[in-house]
Amino acid sequence: MRLAFLGTPEAAVPSLDALVNAGHDVALVITRPDRRRGRGSDLVASPVKEAALALGLTVSHRLSSLDDFDVERGVVVAYGVIIPAPLLQRAPMLNVHFSLLPRWRGAAPVQRAILAGDEETGVSIISLEPSLDTGPVHLERSVQVGDKTAQVLTAELAELGAAALVEVLSSRELLENPKEQRGEVTYAEKITKEMLHLTSGVATVQLLRTVRLGGAYVVIDDKRLGVVSAHASLREVAAGTVSFLEGEVVMGTIDGALLLDDVRPEGSRTMSAESWWIGRRNTQNGLKWS
Question: Top-level CATH class of 2-188?
Fold first, then answer.
């Protein structure tokens, strides 16, 4: 099938690779423009662009480029922009969405599933509509969330979604007979930096879910300390304080304690919590965290 592919992040690359490996003619890849990143502010291509160029595919940063290509369908995976209705009328599109719709429509379905404590999530292959993730479902596949981080779960869903996408495109029955979404609708709003701020007034289980999203942090002595990994502790530590007990850095919460495994101090690299504590000038127990 002659296709256009629209995607941007690493999670979209497995679907692009799967389409090419399945023998589909990917005539055009559309991705977000290169962005300046790092201290040198160098322009960096999206993961999808890098993968597409490695495959020898034509790449564009403009949706209007679709006007120049005759394709049977489009495939959208985490492109990051709502597709206008006129384009959907010109070329029907499939979307690989990382949730079991209609649960978690929107920008951050994986993160929201983790924060909500969902036991199960998955991927939905839907027909794209101008409205947000409302299209009928061609195929769903599910996985257990467990204690996976957002990074690990996203990678798993990316592979699962790629396989499901190829399955839909290879089946006339699945392609032509999608089913309307059924169930309670929930929305996966974008995760803000403020939401990644851990505070002692939140239950330990919810703090650990936030850590699994990546980018979580606490404030100690007016400085941010990134919490890369942690787990619950049975140690007794006063809520809102940090102590070093037998080689372990423990933070007291409203209903227990959080043991820090790996941290990232401001302007530094990731290290063990023990190394961070020992390297501090002030090593007294009972420090405040917020």
Answer: alpha beta
Q: How far apart are CA 210 and CA 230, in angstroms?
A: 10
The pLDDT assigned to 23 comes to: 98
Answer yes or no: are the C-beta atoms of 2 and 25 closer than 8 Å: yes
In the chain, domain spans: 2-188, 193-288
In whole angstroms, give the CA distance from residue 262 to residue 268.
13
For the chain, percent helix, then strand, then coil, each to nearest 5? 30, 30, 40
The answer to whether 232 and 256 are in contact (CB under 8 A) is yes
**Which residues are paired to 219 by β-bridges?**
224
Describe the strand order of the beta sheet including 2-7 as a list of residue ranges: 59-60, 25-30, 2-7, 73-77, 93-97, 120-127, 137-144
pLDDT of residue 40: 61
19 Rama sector, left if φ>0, alpha if ψ -120 to 50, beta otherwise: alpha
Mean pLDDT lowest among 11-15, 113-117, 246-250: 246-250
Its CATH class, for the domain covering 193-288, is alpha beta
